[in-house]
Amino acid sequence: MAKTQVAVIGAGTGGYSAAFRAADLGLQVTLIDRGPTLGGVCLNRGCIPSKALLHVAALLNEAREAEGWGVTFGEPKIDVTKLNEWKKSVVGKMTGGLAELVKRRKITYQQGSAKFVSSTALTVEKAGGGTETLEFEHAVLATGSRPTVIPSLQTKSNRVVDSTGALELTDIPKSMLVVGGGYIGLELGTVYDALSTRVSVVEMMPGLLPGVDRDLVSYLARRLQGRFEKIMLETTVVSLEETKAGVRAKFKGKDGDSEAEYEKVLIAVGRRPNTQNLGLETTKVQVNERGFVVVDEQRRTAEGTIFAVGDIAGEPMLAHKAVHEGIVAAEVISGQKVAFEPHAIPAVVFTDPEIAWCGLTQTQAEKERRTVKVAKFPWGASGRATTLGRNDGMTKLLVDPETERVLGVGIVGAGAGELIAEGALAVEMAALASDLRLTIHPHPTLSETIMEAAETFFGQSLHVYAAKRS
Ligand code: NAD
Fold first, then answer.
1. Ligand 1 proximity of 185 Cβ (cutoff 6 Å)
2. Ligand 1 pocket mutation pick from 149, 204, 315 by most atoms within 8 angstroms of CB
3. What is the pLDDT of residues 323-375, one digit of tens each?
4. Is residue 467, in this structure, part of any structural domain at all?
Protein backbone atom coordinates (compact mmCIF):
# COMPACT_ATOMS: atom_id res chain seq x y z
CA MET A 1 0.00 0.00 0.00
CA ALA A 2 1.34 3.46 -0.95
CA LYS A 3 1.90 5.89 1.92
CA THR A 4 2.11 9.65 2.16
CA GLN A 5 2.34 12.14 4.99
CA VAL A 6 -0.14 14.56 3.47
CA ALA A 7 -2.77 13.68 0.85
CA VAL A 8 -4.36 16.73 -0.74
CA ILE A 9 -7.57 16.08 -2.65
CA GLY A 10 -8.22 18.72 -5.26
CA ALA A 11 -5.56 20.80 -7.03
CA GLY A 12 -7.47 24.08 -7.18
CA THR A 13 -6.24 27.23 -5.48
CA GLY A 14 -6.97 25.87 -1.98
CA GLY A 15 -5.51 22.43 -2.65
CA TYR A 16 -2.31 23.42 -4.39
CA SER A 17 -1.63 26.13 -1.80
CA ALA A 18 -1.91 23.53 0.97
CA ALA A 19 0.27 21.08 -0.99
CA PHE A 20 2.97 23.65 -1.77
CA ARG A 21 3.17 24.95 1.82
CA ALA A 22 3.22 21.42 3.25
CA ALA A 23 6.06 20.46 0.88
CA ASP A 24 7.96 23.66 1.76
CA LEU A 25 7.64 22.69 5.42
CA GLY A 26 9.37 19.38 4.67
CA LEU A 27 6.35 17.11 4.47
CA GLN A 28 5.92 14.42 1.86
CA VAL A 29 2.85 15.32 -0.21
CA THR A 30 0.58 13.56 -2.71
CA LEU A 31 -1.73 15.84 -4.66
CA ILE A 32 -4.74 14.22 -6.33
CA ASP A 33 -7.08 15.77 -8.89
CA ARG A 34 -9.40 14.48 -11.60
CA GLY A 35 -8.21 17.05 -14.09
CA PRO A 36 -5.21 16.79 -16.40
CA THR A 37 -4.02 20.24 -15.34
CA LEU A 38 -3.61 21.91 -11.97
CA GLY A 39 -5.42 25.04 -10.86
CA GLY A 40 -8.99 23.79 -10.51
CA VAL A 41 -12.01 25.84 -11.55
CA CYS A 42 -10.42 29.24 -10.88
CA LEU A 43 -7.51 28.76 -13.21
CA ASN A 44 -9.02 26.46 -15.84
CA ARG A 45 -12.66 27.53 -16.06
CA GLY A 46 -13.20 30.54 -13.80
CA CYS A 47 -11.25 33.53 -12.53
CA ILE A 48 -8.36 33.48 -15.00
CA PRO A 49 -10.09 32.86 -18.35
CA SER A 50 -12.92 35.23 -17.37
CA LYS A 51 -10.46 37.97 -16.48
CA ALA A 52 -8.62 37.47 -19.77
CA LEU A 53 -11.95 38.02 -21.57
CA LEU A 54 -12.88 40.94 -19.30
CA HIS A 55 -9.59 42.57 -20.26
CA VAL A 56 -10.65 42.34 -23.91
CA ALA A 57 -14.08 43.71 -22.96
CA ALA A 58 -12.47 46.71 -21.25
CA LEU A 59 -10.34 47.37 -24.32
CA LEU A 60 -13.36 47.25 -26.64
CA ASN A 61 -15.38 49.55 -24.40
CA GLU A 62 -12.56 52.04 -23.97
CA ALA A 63 -11.92 52.12 -27.72
CA ARG A 64 -15.61 52.95 -28.24
CA GLU A 65 -15.55 55.63 -25.56
CA ALA A 66 -12.44 57.24 -27.05
CA GLU A 67 -14.67 58.78 -29.70
CA GLY A 68 -15.74 61.31 -27.10
CA TRP A 69 -12.07 62.23 -26.56
CA GLY A 70 -11.46 62.84 -30.24
CA VAL A 71 -10.06 59.43 -31.17
CA THR A 72 -12.15 57.23 -33.43
CA PHE A 73 -11.32 53.62 -34.15
CA GLY A 74 -13.10 51.54 -36.76
CA GLU A 75 -15.56 48.81 -35.79
CA PRO A 76 -13.53 46.01 -34.19
CA LYS A 77 -13.17 42.74 -36.08
CA ILE A 78 -13.30 39.89 -33.62
CA ASP A 79 -11.61 36.63 -34.55
CA VAL A 80 -13.26 34.24 -32.08
CA THR A 81 -10.79 31.43 -32.80
CA LYS A 82 -7.80 33.66 -32.10
CA LEU A 83 -9.43 35.17 -29.04
CA ASN A 84 -10.01 31.67 -27.67
CA GLU A 85 -6.43 30.69 -28.46
CA TRP A 86 -5.15 33.69 -26.55
CA LYS A 87 -7.40 32.88 -23.57
CA LYS A 88 -6.18 29.27 -23.67
CA SER A 89 -2.57 30.42 -23.81
CA VAL A 90 -3.11 32.52 -20.68
CA VAL A 91 -4.49 29.48 -18.85
CA GLY A 92 -1.79 27.22 -20.31
CA LYS A 93 0.99 29.49 -19.11
CA MET A 94 -0.35 29.38 -15.57
CA THR A 95 -1.15 25.63 -15.43
CA GLY A 96 2.27 24.89 -16.94
CA GLY A 97 3.88 27.02 -14.25
CA LEU A 98 2.03 25.13 -11.52
CA ALA A 99 3.06 21.75 -12.97
CA GLU A 100 6.68 22.90 -12.86
CA LEU A 101 6.30 24.03 -9.24
CA VAL A 102 4.84 20.62 -8.32
CA LYS A 103 7.86 18.91 -9.87
CA ARG A 104 10.40 21.21 -8.21
CA ARG A 105 8.78 20.65 -4.83
CA LYS A 106 8.89 16.88 -5.38
CA ILE A 107 5.15 16.56 -4.83
CA THR A 108 3.61 13.35 -6.23
CA TYR A 109 0.76 14.26 -8.57
CA GLN A 110 -1.92 11.69 -9.24
CA GLN A 111 -4.66 12.23 -11.78
CA GLY A 112 -7.75 10.42 -10.59
CA SER A 113 -10.73 10.41 -8.22
CA ALA A 114 -10.07 10.04 -4.51
CA LYS A 115 -12.45 8.48 -2.03
CA PHE A 116 -11.92 7.96 1.70
CA VAL A 117 -12.12 4.40 2.98
CA SER A 118 -11.19 5.30 6.56
CA SER A 119 -9.78 8.19 8.60
CA THR A 120 -6.26 7.30 7.42
CA ALA A 121 -6.69 5.83 3.96
CA LEU A 122 -8.24 6.60 0.60
CA THR A 123 -8.50 4.98 -2.78
CA VAL A 124 -7.58 6.69 -6.00
CA GLU A 125 -9.34 5.59 -9.15
CA LYS A 126 -6.66 6.58 -11.58
CA ALA A 127 -7.45 8.46 -14.78
CA GLY A 128 -5.25 6.01 -16.69
CA GLY A 129 -7.06 3.00 -15.20
CA GLY A 130 -6.65 0.99 -12.04
CA THR A 131 -7.23 1.80 -8.40
CA GLU A 132 -4.63 2.44 -5.74
CA THR A 133 -5.01 2.64 -2.00
CA LEU A 134 -3.10 5.43 -0.30
CA GLU A 135 -2.47 5.61 3.42
CA PHE A 136 -2.04 9.11 4.84
CA GLU A 137 -1.15 10.75 8.14
CA HIS A 138 -3.19 13.83 7.25
CA ALA A 139 -5.51 14.72 4.38
CA VAL A 140 -6.65 18.09 3.09
CA LEU A 141 -9.98 18.09 1.33
CA ALA A 142 -10.19 20.83 -1.31
CA THR A 143 -12.72 19.61 -3.85
CA GLY A 144 -14.29 23.01 -4.54
CA SER A 145 -17.77 23.68 -5.86
CA ARG A 146 -19.95 23.30 -8.94
CA PRO A 147 -22.69 25.45 -10.48
CA THR A 148 -26.14 25.17 -8.89
CA VAL A 149 -28.59 23.49 -11.21
CA ILE A 150 -32.27 24.49 -11.33
CA PRO A 151 -34.00 21.15 -12.09
CA SER A 152 -36.99 22.77 -13.84
CA LEU A 153 -34.64 24.59 -16.24
CA GLN A 154 -32.52 21.58 -17.15
CA THR A 155 -32.41 20.96 -20.87
CA LYS A 156 -30.20 19.07 -23.29
CA SER A 157 -29.88 22.15 -25.49
CA ASN A 158 -26.30 23.28 -26.01
CA ARG A 159 -27.64 26.81 -26.19
CA VAL A 160 -28.17 26.72 -22.42
CA VAL A 161 -24.80 26.91 -20.70
CA ASP A 162 -23.21 27.45 -17.31
CA SER A 163 -20.11 29.56 -16.70
CA THR A 164 -17.83 26.87 -18.19
CA GLY A 165 -19.86 26.81 -21.40
CA ALA A 166 -20.01 30.61 -21.60
CA LEU A 167 -16.23 30.84 -21.17
CA GLU A 168 -15.69 28.45 -24.06
CA LEU A 169 -16.90 31.26 -26.29
CA THR A 170 -17.81 29.02 -29.21
CA ASP A 171 -19.48 31.94 -30.98
CA ILE A 172 -20.75 35.45 -30.36
CA PRO A 173 -24.52 35.10 -30.07
CA LYS A 174 -26.74 37.98 -31.11
CA SER A 175 -28.69 37.76 -27.89
CA MET A 176 -28.15 36.18 -24.49
CA LEU A 177 -30.27 35.75 -21.40
CA VAL A 178 -28.31 35.66 -18.16
CA VAL A 179 -30.20 33.94 -15.34
CA GLY A 180 -28.82 35.30 -12.04
CA GLY A 181 -27.56 38.84 -11.47
CA GLY A 182 -24.65 37.81 -9.25
CA TYR A 183 -20.88 37.70 -9.71
CA ILE A 184 -20.76 35.32 -12.68
CA GLY A 185 -23.85 36.58 -14.48
CA LEU A 186 -22.71 40.20 -14.42
CA GLU A 187 -19.04 39.50 -15.20
CA LEU A 188 -19.80 37.26 -18.18
CA GLY A 189 -22.70 39.49 -19.19
CA THR A 190 -20.14 42.32 -19.37
CA VAL A 191 -17.89 40.22 -21.62
CA TYR A 192 -20.66 39.29 -24.06
CA ASP A 193 -22.06 42.84 -24.07
CA ALA A 194 -18.66 44.20 -25.08
CA LEU A 195 -18.51 41.59 -27.86
CA SER A 196 -21.81 43.10 -29.13
CA THR A 197 -24.26 40.48 -27.84
CA ARG A 198 -27.58 41.97 -26.67
CA VAL A 199 -27.58 40.87 -23.02
CA SER A 200 -30.64 40.58 -20.76
CA VAL A 201 -30.44 39.68 -17.08
CA VAL A 202 -33.11 38.09 -14.94
CA GLU A 203 -32.64 38.26 -11.17
CA MET A 204 -35.12 36.97 -8.61
CA MET A 205 -34.17 39.48 -5.89
CA PRO A 206 -35.14 43.20 -5.93
CA GLY A 207 -31.62 44.29 -6.95
CA LEU A 208 -28.49 43.09 -8.72
CA LEU A 209 -25.75 41.55 -6.55
CA PRO A 210 -27.99 40.91 -3.54
CA GLY A 211 -26.15 41.34 -0.26
CA VAL A 212 -23.70 43.92 -1.61
CA ASP A 213 -24.12 47.51 -0.31
CA ARG A 214 -26.78 49.23 -2.43
CA ASP A 215 -24.86 52.49 -2.85
CA LEU A 216 -21.97 50.58 -4.44
CA VAL A 217 -24.25 48.56 -6.72
CA SER A 218 -26.16 51.67 -7.86
CA TYR A 219 -23.18 52.90 -9.96
CA LEU A 220 -22.91 49.54 -11.74
CA ALA A 221 -26.67 49.20 -12.17
CA ARG A 222 -26.82 52.65 -13.81
CA ARG A 223 -24.13 51.77 -16.33
CA LEU A 224 -25.58 48.34 -17.07
CA GLN A 225 -29.03 49.84 -17.62
CA GLY A 226 -27.49 51.89 -20.41
CA ARG A 227 -25.71 48.92 -21.94
CA PHE A 228 -27.76 45.77 -21.39
CA GLU A 229 -30.95 45.22 -23.34
CA LYS A 230 -33.05 44.50 -20.26
CA ILE A 231 -32.63 43.94 -16.53
CA MET A 232 -35.58 42.09 -15.02
CA LEU A 233 -35.67 42.20 -11.23
CA GLU A 234 -37.89 40.20 -8.88
CA THR A 235 -38.41 37.85 -11.78
CA THR A 236 -37.67 34.17 -12.32
CA VAL A 237 -37.54 31.93 -15.35
CA VAL A 238 -40.37 29.42 -15.34
CA SER A 239 -39.29 27.41 -18.37
CA LEU A 240 -36.71 27.20 -21.13
CA GLU A 241 -37.63 25.57 -24.41
CA GLU A 242 -35.39 25.10 -27.42
CA THR A 243 -36.71 26.52 -30.69
CA LYS A 244 -35.25 26.51 -34.20
CA ALA A 245 -33.38 29.75 -33.73
CA GLY A 246 -32.71 29.72 -30.03
CA VAL A 247 -34.31 29.25 -26.65
CA ARG A 248 -37.70 30.54 -25.59
CA ALA A 249 -37.80 31.68 -21.95
CA LYS A 250 -40.97 32.20 -19.97
CA PHE A 251 -40.80 34.64 -17.07
CA LYS A 252 -42.85 35.19 -13.95
CA GLY A 253 -42.21 38.39 -12.09
CA LYS A 254 -43.33 41.58 -10.47
CA ASP A 255 -44.42 42.91 -13.86
CA GLY A 256 -46.48 39.81 -14.63
CA ASP A 257 -45.80 36.94 -17.01
CA SER A 258 -43.84 37.38 -20.22
CA GLU A 259 -41.69 35.47 -22.68
CA ALA A 260 -38.86 36.11 -25.09
CA GLU A 261 -36.43 34.24 -27.32
CA TYR A 262 -32.63 34.29 -27.04
CA GLU A 263 -29.82 32.73 -29.00
CA LYS A 264 -28.09 31.61 -25.82
CA VAL A 265 -28.89 31.33 -22.12
CA LEU A 266 -26.32 31.46 -19.33
CA ILE A 267 -27.41 30.08 -15.98
CA ALA A 268 -25.39 31.47 -13.04
CA VAL A 269 -27.49 31.13 -9.90
CA GLY A 270 -24.80 30.23 -7.38
CA ARG A 271 -22.48 27.34 -6.59
CA ARG A 272 -22.70 24.25 -4.38
CA PRO A 273 -19.84 22.57 -2.50
CA ASN A 274 -18.58 19.24 -3.89
CA THR A 275 -19.02 16.89 -0.95
CA GLN A 276 -20.59 13.93 -2.71
CA ASN A 277 -18.92 10.58 -3.54
CA LEU A 278 -15.94 11.27 -1.31
CA GLY A 279 -16.52 8.40 1.09
CA LEU A 280 -17.01 10.90 3.93
CA GLU A 281 -19.35 8.39 5.60
CA THR A 282 -16.27 6.25 6.36
CA THR A 283 -14.86 9.14 8.43
CA LYS A 284 -16.17 11.45 11.17
CA VAL A 285 -16.21 14.44 8.79
CA GLN A 286 -19.44 16.39 9.19
CA VAL A 287 -21.33 18.20 6.46
CA ASN A 288 -23.84 20.92 7.42
CA GLU A 289 -27.34 21.46 6.04
CA ARG A 290 -25.98 23.63 3.21
CA GLY A 291 -23.50 20.99 2.12
CA PHE A 292 -20.35 22.63 3.53
CA VAL A 293 -17.82 20.60 5.50
CA VAL A 294 -17.76 21.74 9.13
CA VAL A 295 -14.29 22.97 10.14
CA ASP A 296 -12.75 24.76 13.13
CA GLU A 297 -10.55 27.85 12.95
CA GLN A 298 -7.59 25.67 12.00
CA ARG A 299 -9.65 24.16 9.14
CA ARG A 300 -9.72 20.80 10.91
CA THR A 301 -12.85 18.70 10.38
CA ALA A 302 -14.53 16.59 13.07
CA GLU A 303 -12.06 13.87 11.98
CA GLY A 304 -8.72 14.90 13.51
CA THR A 305 -6.62 13.69 10.57
CA ILE A 306 -8.67 15.45 7.90
CA PHE A 307 -8.75 19.17 7.06
CA ALA A 308 -10.96 21.02 4.58
CA VAL A 309 -10.25 24.28 2.74
CA GLY A 310 -11.75 26.47 0.03
CA ASP A 311 -15.31 26.44 -1.33
CA ILE A 312 -16.05 23.14 0.39
CA ALA A 313 -15.30 24.68 3.80
CA GLY A 314 -17.85 27.51 3.64
CA GLU A 315 -18.43 30.97 2.26
CA PRO A 316 -17.23 33.21 0.82
CA MET A 317 -16.39 30.95 -2.11
CA LEU A 318 -13.39 32.97 -3.21
CA ALA A 319 -10.01 31.74 -4.45
CA HIS A 320 -7.94 34.04 -2.23
CA LYS A 321 -9.76 32.80 0.86
CA ALA A 322 -8.99 29.22 -0.24
CA VAL A 323 -5.28 30.03 -0.61
CA HIS A 324 -5.01 31.31 2.95
CA GLU A 325 -7.01 28.41 4.34
CA GLY A 326 -4.76 25.96 2.48
CA ILE A 327 -1.67 27.58 3.98
CA VAL A 328 -3.16 27.48 7.49
CA ALA A 329 -4.09 23.77 7.14
CA ALA A 330 -0.57 22.87 5.97
CA GLU A 331 1.03 24.83 8.80
CA VAL A 332 -1.24 23.24 11.41
CA ILE A 333 -0.39 19.79 10.02
CA SER A 334 3.30 20.59 10.34
CA GLY A 335 2.76 21.45 14.01
CA GLN A 336 2.50 25.25 13.92
CA LYS A 337 0.06 27.06 16.19
CA VAL A 338 -1.83 29.10 13.62
CA ALA A 339 -5.46 29.77 12.82
CA PHE A 340 -7.58 31.18 10.00
CA GLU A 341 -9.10 34.30 11.53
CA PRO A 342 -9.15 37.17 9.03
CA HIS A 343 -10.91 40.47 9.74
CA ALA A 344 -11.15 41.33 6.07
CA ILE A 345 -11.57 38.93 3.18
CA PRO A 346 -11.76 41.23 0.17
CA ALA A 347 -14.38 40.58 -2.50
CA VAL A 348 -14.23 41.94 -6.03
CA VAL A 349 -16.84 41.86 -8.75
CA PHE A 350 -14.89 42.41 -11.98
CA THR A 351 -17.62 44.26 -13.83
CA ASP A 352 -17.33 47.72 -15.34
CA PRO A 353 -17.19 49.60 -13.03
CA GLU A 354 -15.73 47.10 -10.59
CA ILE A 355 -17.12 46.73 -7.09
CA ALA A 356 -14.85 45.76 -4.21
CA TRP A 357 -15.25 45.63 -0.47
CA CYS A 358 -13.67 44.18 2.64
CA GLY A 359 -14.33 43.95 6.36
CA LEU A 360 -17.63 45.26 7.69
CA THR A 361 -20.20 46.24 5.07
CA GLN A 362 -22.98 48.77 5.59
CA THR A 363 -25.55 46.05 4.95
CA GLN A 364 -24.03 43.95 7.72
CA ALA A 365 -23.70 46.92 10.09
CA GLU A 366 -27.39 47.77 9.62
CA LYS A 367 -28.41 44.15 10.16
CA GLU A 368 -26.34 43.95 13.35
CA ARG A 369 -27.46 47.47 14.43
CA ARG A 370 -23.87 48.53 14.81
CA THR A 371 -23.16 52.23 14.99
CA VAL A 372 -20.66 53.20 12.34
CA LYS A 373 -19.79 56.42 10.63
CA VAL A 374 -19.67 56.16 6.85
CA ALA A 375 -17.14 58.47 5.20
CA LYS A 376 -17.59 58.74 1.43
CA PHE A 377 -15.55 60.29 -1.34
CA PRO A 378 -17.21 60.55 -4.77
CA TRP A 379 -14.91 60.03 -7.74
CA GLY A 380 -16.43 63.08 -9.42
CA ALA A 381 -13.91 65.00 -7.31
CA SER A 382 -10.94 62.78 -8.21
CA GLY A 383 -8.45 64.21 -10.69
CA ARG A 384 -7.29 60.76 -11.76
CA ALA A 385 -10.81 59.46 -12.33
CA THR A 386 -11.52 62.55 -14.45
CA THR A 387 -8.43 61.95 -16.64
CA LEU A 388 -9.69 58.41 -17.22
CA GLY A 389 -13.17 59.62 -18.13
CA ARG A 390 -14.43 57.53 -15.24
CA ASN A 391 -16.03 59.72 -12.61
CA ASP A 392 -18.59 56.97 -12.02
CA GLY A 393 -17.12 55.75 -8.77
CA MET A 394 -17.11 56.17 -5.03
CA THR A 395 -14.89 55.17 -2.12
CA LYS A 396 -16.25 54.78 1.38
CA LEU A 397 -14.90 53.87 4.77
CA LEU A 398 -16.88 52.40 7.64
CA VAL A 399 -15.38 53.78 10.80
CA ASP A 400 -16.05 53.13 14.47
CA PRO A 401 -17.06 56.62 15.69
CA GLU A 402 -15.58 56.07 19.15
CA THR A 403 -12.22 54.45 18.41
CA GLU A 404 -11.94 55.89 14.87
CA ARG A 405 -10.85 52.44 13.73
CA VAL A 406 -11.49 51.52 10.08
CA LEU A 407 -13.84 48.54 10.15
CA GLY A 408 -14.66 48.19 6.47
CA VAL A 409 -14.00 49.66 3.05
CA GLY A 410 -16.21 49.71 -0.05
CA ILE A 411 -15.17 50.93 -3.49
CA VAL A 412 -16.97 51.12 -6.81
CA GLY A 413 -15.17 52.37 -9.90
CA ALA A 414 -12.68 51.44 -12.59
CA GLY A 415 -9.91 49.39 -11.01
CA ALA A 416 -11.63 49.09 -7.61
CA GLY A 417 -10.32 45.53 -7.38
CA GLU A 418 -6.73 46.74 -7.29
CA LEU A 419 -7.51 49.47 -4.75
CA ILE A 420 -9.22 47.29 -2.17
CA ALA A 421 -5.94 45.71 -1.00
CA GLU A 422 -5.12 48.94 0.85
CA GLY A 423 -8.49 48.69 2.58
CA ALA A 424 -7.83 45.06 3.55
CA LEU A 425 -4.46 46.04 5.01
CA ALA A 426 -6.05 48.92 6.93
CA VAL A 427 -8.75 46.71 8.42
CA GLU A 428 -6.34 43.85 9.26
CA MET A 429 -3.86 46.23 10.89
CA ALA A 430 -6.61 48.00 12.84
CA ALA A 431 -5.68 51.27 11.15
CA LEU A 432 -7.41 54.44 12.32
CA ALA A 433 -9.05 56.84 9.91
CA SER A 434 -6.19 59.23 10.75
CA ASP A 435 -3.63 56.65 9.53
CA LEU A 436 -5.24 56.68 6.10
CA ARG A 437 -5.67 60.45 6.16
CA LEU A 438 -2.06 61.15 7.11
CA THR A 439 -0.48 58.63 4.74
CA ILE A 440 0.70 60.53 1.69
CA HIS A 441 -0.90 58.94 -1.36
CA PRO A 442 0.60 59.62 -4.81
CA HIS A 443 -1.08 62.22 -6.99
CA PRO A 444 -2.83 61.83 -9.33
CA THR A 445 -4.02 58.30 -8.53
CA LEU A 446 -7.29 56.65 -7.65
CA SER A 447 -5.71 55.58 -4.35
CA GLU A 448 -6.10 59.18 -3.17
CA THR A 449 -9.84 58.53 -2.92
CA ILE A 450 -9.14 56.35 0.14
CA MET A 451 -7.16 59.15 1.79
CA GLU A 452 -9.83 61.71 0.93
CA ALA A 453 -12.61 59.46 2.24
CA ALA A 454 -10.65 59.41 5.52
CA GLU A 455 -10.49 63.22 5.40
CA THR A 456 -14.26 63.42 5.10
CA PHE A 457 -14.51 61.37 8.29
CA PHE A 458 -12.91 64.31 10.07
CA GLY A 459 -15.29 66.79 8.46
CA GLN A 460 -13.82 68.10 5.23
CA SER A 461 -11.79 66.68 2.36
CA LEU A 462 -9.73 68.99 0.15
CA HIS A 463 -11.72 68.31 -2.98
CA VAL A 464 -15.25 68.06 -1.64
CA TYR A 465 -16.70 71.05 0.16
CA ALA A 466 -19.53 70.38 2.54
CA ALA A 467 -21.03 73.62 3.86
CA LYS A 468 -21.00 73.63 7.65
CA ARG A 469 -24.41 73.58 9.26
CA SER A 470 -24.97 76.59 11.46
P1 NAD B 1 -24.05 34.48 -6.89
O2 NAD B 1 -24.53 33.94 -5.61
O3 NAD B 1 -23.06 35.57 -6.91
O4 NAD B 1 -25.28 35.01 -7.77
C5 NAD B 1 -26.38 34.21 -8.08
C6 NAD B 1 -27.55 35.12 -8.32
O7 NAD B 1 -28.61 34.36 -8.87
C8 NAD B 1 -28.09 35.77 -7.07
O9 NAD B 1 -28.20 37.14 -7.29
C10 NAD B 1 -29.45 35.10 -6.86
O11 NAD B 1 -30.38 35.94 -6.23
C12 NAD B 1 -29.82 34.77 -8.29
N13 NAD B 1 -30.76 33.67 -8.45
C14 NAD B 1 -30.77 32.48 -7.80
N15 NAD B 1 -31.77 31.70 -8.27
C16 NAD B 1 -32.37 32.39 -9.26
C17 NAD B 1 -33.44 32.11 -10.13
N18 NAD B 1 -34.10 30.95 -10.11
N19 NAD B 1 -33.81 33.05 -11.04
C20 NAD B 1 -33.16 34.25 -11.08
N21 NAD B 1 -32.14 34.56 -10.27
C22 NAD B 1 -31.74 33.65 -9.37
O23 NAD B 1 -23.56 33.21 -7.72
P24 NAD B 1 -22.75 33.08 -9.07
O25 NAD B 1 -22.76 34.35 -9.83
O26 NAD B 1 -23.26 31.84 -9.72
O27 NAD B 1 -21.29 32.81 -8.56
C28 NAD B 1 -21.05 31.73 -7.67
C29 NAD B 1 -19.95 32.05 -6.72
O30 NAD B 1 -18.72 32.05 -7.43
C31 NAD B 1 -20.05 33.42 -6.08
O32 NAD B 1 -20.80 33.40 -4.90
C33 NAD B 1 -18.62 33.74 -5.80
O34 NAD B 1 -18.29 33.24 -4.55
C35 NAD B 1 -17.86 33.00 -6.87
N36 NAD B 1 -17.38 33.90 -7.92
C37 NAD B 1 -16.56 34.92 -7.58
C38 NAD B 1 -16.09 35.79 -8.53
C39 NAD B 1 -15.16 36.88 -8.14
O40 NAD B 1 -14.57 36.79 -7.06
N41 NAD B 1 -15.01 37.92 -8.92
C42 NAD B 1 -16.50 35.66 -9.85
C43 NAD B 1 -17.36 34.62 -10.17
C44 NAD B 1 -17.79 33.75 -9.20
1. yes
2. 204
3. 999 999 999 999 999 999 999 999 999 999 999 999 999 999 999 999 999 99
4. no
